[in-house]
């Protein structure tokens, strides 16, 4: 039994061990499986962290207290270093890695951070490049050793560039905004800005000037609008419309700017946030220009209607847009039909029906060729149309830049006929030239003779065959010199031809030939640049001229002798006349005793006759001396109004004897003149005496007036007047004028009057008509 029991326990032991091991193994397997999953999770997390670290924009660097570093391989590659760098100072070596100065500053900051536990933040540069890295960090977290610092390096090169670029753009934007602000202020037209409430928030100087406000602040404070008065909603309504339409709103309105009515174009532009900006442009000049352009176009149309040439214009679509009356007449088309703006082809077809186009074999082809004028590159096309009735039209086509066409029609029928007549006239001219009494030669611009007549050859005794070679004027001068009394005068002919051809000046002169004949010549520039040389035989007229000159000289000598004789006789007559007057005065004074009444009357008549004769002699002497030398006058201050009044009073008795009314109107403006009182009194007396003598009935009127510069005395009568032929002779010496009263004795009054008045610097004017009386006007300056 004992053996059996031992055997049984020995067999059960493995089973017991197996029973114990199996749960233990299962438990270990579970634990192992959990750890494997945890390990795989940690590994996966580590891999994810590594991937995230690799993809992160920052690279880590662990720096120990002693300067040793644990560097990321990617970081080393980014700064240009290779693996194996183990110390902080090795990050800058051989021109690679970090900039030496920046690394030294970073090391100093790290030492301070280790002592104080502060955070590290600075920028470092990569050596020999434009790259910049931002360094940030602080004490390394456990399980890193004490005093270790974890740094993160961010590559901020692009950010720095963007930062610099943004700074530059900000600066440029500020400068642009400042320039724009100055530009708005300096703008010559009003500009404004409205806030969300549509009230004015900003205006420029032009706006302030336009509304005549003291300042921009006053404009904004008082809400002064450019167009509408304060408180009006017109300007705000336009801004609201621009905001509602979300696009600029423009309108034209008149305004008073600087006291002048001007037309403005106002534009409101919607901005973000409900604000509105606007500006105003003075378009008054544009409106004036538009008005003037309209007037110009209308004037051009009116001018076109007055042209002799026909004009018609077609639009790019070949419809008629304009025509004038001459075109309608030339084309024989109804203006009402043309007013319907027919197409180009229809116009040609209607003109063909009216017989106003030239005959062609293929009209459609001809019409297509004319249709091509619309797109022709030529500036102008010209044709001559000969119509079936013999009319000749010149047609000019002008393609327009917009694709249209303008046509001009000129009726040259009369010109063609005139050209034919001209050819006939040229032949007649040649025959006429050869039969003229004048010698004619035409010289070209180069001085060659290319046209002459037979008289020219005979006057100069030249060989016509030699002239056929068209010699120059220099070659003609020696041949001409042989025919002249003064051979050197031939050079004058050459100079005249040169002046007429080159300087376009006329010239003339006289030549004497050796055969005793005389010629007058002239050179005349012709429109074609040539010169016409003419010669006229004036031998007979020269002889007559010499005879007339001799006769004129003799007449002048006889007139001088007569004048001297009259002057001398006047002086001689004074001596006996003075004696007669003196003795007569003695008799009248009773020196020979008391005279009987009849004898006293006789003596009185003698004295009166002596006075008249003395006056007549004085007049003759004044007249003859005035012809020989200037009249000597006194220069004194004269009350002309009183002088005229006194003269009229002296002549009233003579007027009453003839039953005439002598009326005088002396205006206070007559005033004072400087001159010779005696001469002026005699001048007025002469005119009054003539007026009374030649007036049988009616009135003699005198009117005197003046201004600051002159005095005018106007004497008129109702006498019989003077014939037109006699009016030219009344101021001549010793002229006898016939009339119903007989002839004047000597005719001294008016010549003396003119002589005395002109000596004072004045004028005498006579106007008369037979049967209507005479008016004599004396004009005297204030100062002679």
UniProtKB/TrEMBL annotation:
<dbReference type="InterPro" id="IPR004358">
    <property type="entry name" value="Sig_transdc_His_kin-like_C"/>
</dbReference>
<dbReference type="InterPro" id="IPR050736">
    <property type="entry name" value="Sensor_HK_Regulatory"/>
</dbReference>
<dbReference type="InterPro" id="IPR005467">
    <property type="entry name" value="His_kinase_dom"/>
</dbReference>
<dbReference type="Pfam" id="PF02518">
    <property type="entry name" value="HATPase_c"/>
</dbReference>
<dbReference type="Pfam" id="PF12860">
    <property type="entry name" value="PAS_7"/>
</dbReference>
<keyword id="KW-0902">Two-component regulatory system</keyword>
<dbReference type="InterPro" id="IPR003661">
    <property type="entry name" value="HisK_dim/P_dom"/>
</dbReference>
<keyword id="KW-0597">Phosphoprotein</keyword>
<keyword id="KW-0472">Membrane</keyword>
<keyword id="KW-1133">Transmembrane helix</keyword>
<dbReference type="InterPro" id="IPR036890">
    <property type="entry name" value="HATPase_C_sf"/>
</dbReference>
<feature type="transmembrane region" description="Helical">
    <location>
        <begin position="12"/>
        <end position="33"/>
    </location>
</feature>
<keyword id="KW-0812">Transmembrane</keyword>
<dbReference type="Pfam" id="PF00512">
    <property type="entry name" value="HisKA"/>
</dbReference>
<protein>
    <recommendedName>
        <fullName>histidine kinase</fullName>
        <ecNumber>2.7.13.3</ecNumber>
    </recommendedName>
</protein>
<dbReference type="InterPro" id="IPR035965">
    <property type="entry name" value="PAS-like_dom_sf"/>
</dbReference>
<dbReference type="InterPro" id="IPR036097">
    <property type="entry name" value="HisK_dim/P_sf"/>
</dbReference>
<feature type="domain" description="Histidine kinase">
    <location>
        <begin position="568"/>
        <end position="784"/>
    </location>
</feature>
<keyword id="KW-0418">Kinase</keyword>
<dbReference type="InterPro" id="IPR003594">
    <property type="entry name" value="HATPase_dom"/>
</dbReference>
<keyword id="KW-0808">Transferase</keyword>
């Amino acid at each position: 039994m004992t053996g059996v029991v031992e055997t049984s326990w020995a067999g059960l032991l493995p089973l017991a061990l197996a029973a114990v091991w199996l749960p233990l193994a299962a438990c270990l397997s579970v634990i192992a499986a959990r750890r494997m999953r945890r390990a795989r999770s940690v590994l996966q997390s580590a891999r994810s962290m590594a991937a995230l670290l690799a993809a992160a924009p920052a690279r880590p660097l662990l720096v120990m207290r002693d300067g040793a570093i644990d560097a990321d391989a990617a970081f080393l590659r980014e700064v240009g270093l290779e693996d194996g760098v183990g110390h902080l100072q090795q990050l800058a070596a051989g021109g690679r890695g970090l900039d030496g100065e920046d690394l030294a500053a970073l090391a100093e900051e790290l030492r301070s951070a280790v002592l104080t536990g502060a955070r590290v933040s600075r920028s470092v540069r990569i050596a020999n490049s434009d790259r910049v890295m931002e360094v940030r960090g602080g004490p390394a977290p456990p399980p890193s050793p004490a005093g270790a610092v974890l740094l993160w390096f961010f590559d901020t090169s692009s950010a720095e560039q963007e930062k610099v670029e943004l700074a530059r753009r900000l600066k440029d934007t500020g400068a642009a905004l400042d320039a724009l602000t100055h530009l708005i202020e300096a703008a010559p037209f009003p500009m404004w800005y409205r806030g969300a409430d549509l009230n004015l928030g900003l205006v420029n100087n032009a706006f302030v000037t336009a509304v005549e406000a003291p300042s921009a602040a006053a404009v904004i404070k008082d809400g002064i609008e450019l167009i509408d008065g304060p408180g009006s909603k017109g300007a705000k309504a336009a801004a609201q419309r621009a905001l509602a339409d979300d696009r600029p709103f423009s309108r034209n309105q008149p305004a008073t700017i600087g006291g002048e009515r001007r037309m403005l174009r106002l534009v409101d532009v919607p901005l973000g946030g409900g604000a509105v900006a606007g500006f105003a442009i003075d378009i008054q000049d544009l409106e004036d220009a538009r008005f003037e352009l309209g007037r110009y176009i209308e004037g051009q149309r009116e001018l076109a209607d007055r042209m002799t040439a026909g004009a018609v214009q077609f639009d790019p679509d070949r419809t008629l847009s304009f025509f004038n009356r001459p075109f309608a007449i030339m084309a024989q088309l109804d203006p009402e039909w043309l007013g319907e703006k027919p197409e180009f082809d229809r116009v040609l077809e209607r003109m063909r029906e009216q017989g106003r186009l030239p005959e062609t074999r293929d009209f459609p082809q001809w019409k297509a060729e004319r249709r091509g004028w619309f797109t022709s590159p030529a500036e102008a096309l010209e044709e001559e149309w000969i119509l079936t009735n013999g009319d000749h039209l010149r047609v000019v086509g002008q393609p327009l830049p917009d694709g249209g066409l303008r046509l001009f029609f000129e009726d040259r029928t009369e010109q063609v006929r005139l050209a034919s007549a001209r050819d006939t006239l040229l032949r007649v001219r040649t025959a006429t030239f050869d039969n003229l009494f004048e010698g004619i030669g035409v010289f070209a611009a180069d001085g060659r003779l290319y046209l002459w007549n037979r008289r020219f050859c005979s006057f100069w005794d030249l060989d016509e065959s030699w002239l056929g070679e068209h010699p120059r004027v220099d070659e003609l001068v020696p041949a001409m010199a042989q025919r002249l009394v003064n051979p050197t005068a031939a050079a004058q002919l050459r100079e005249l031809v040169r002046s007429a051809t080159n300087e376009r000046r006329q010239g003339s002169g006289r030549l004497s030939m050796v055969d005793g004949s005389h010629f007058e010549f002239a050179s005349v520039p012709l429109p074609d640049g040539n010169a016409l040389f003419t010669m006229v035989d004036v031998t007979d007229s020269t002889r007559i001229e010499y005879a007339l000159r001799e006769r004129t000289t003799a007449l002048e000598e006889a007139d001088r002798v007569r004048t001297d004789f009259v002057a001398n006789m006047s002086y001689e007559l004074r001596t006996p006349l003075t004696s007669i007057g003196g003795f007569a005065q003695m008799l009248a004074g009773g020196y020979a005793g008391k005279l009987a009444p009849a004898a006293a009357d006789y003596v009185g008549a003698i004295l009166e006759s002596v006075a008249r004769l003395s006056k007549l002699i004085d007049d003759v002497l004044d007249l003859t001396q005035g012809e020989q030398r200037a009249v000597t006058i006194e220069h004194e201050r004269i009350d002309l109004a009183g002088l005229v009044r006194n003269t009229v009073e002296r002549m009233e008795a003579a007027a009453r004897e003839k039953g005439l009314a002598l009326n005088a109107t002396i205006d206070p403006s007559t005033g004072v003149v400087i001159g010779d009182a005696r001469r002026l009194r005699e001048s007025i007396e002469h005119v009054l005496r003539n007026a009374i003598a030649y007036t049988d009935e009616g009135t003699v009127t005198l009117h005197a007036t003046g201004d600051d510069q002159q005095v005018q005395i106007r004497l008129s009568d109702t006498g019989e007047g003077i014939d037109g032929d006699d009016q030219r002779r009344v101021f001549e010496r010793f002229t006898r004028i016939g009339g119903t009263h007989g002839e004047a004795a000597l005719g001294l009054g008016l010549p003396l009057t003119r002589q005395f008045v002109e000596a004072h610097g004045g004028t005498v004017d006579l106007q008369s008509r037979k049967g209507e009386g005479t008016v004599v006007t004396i004009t005297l300056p204030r100062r002679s």
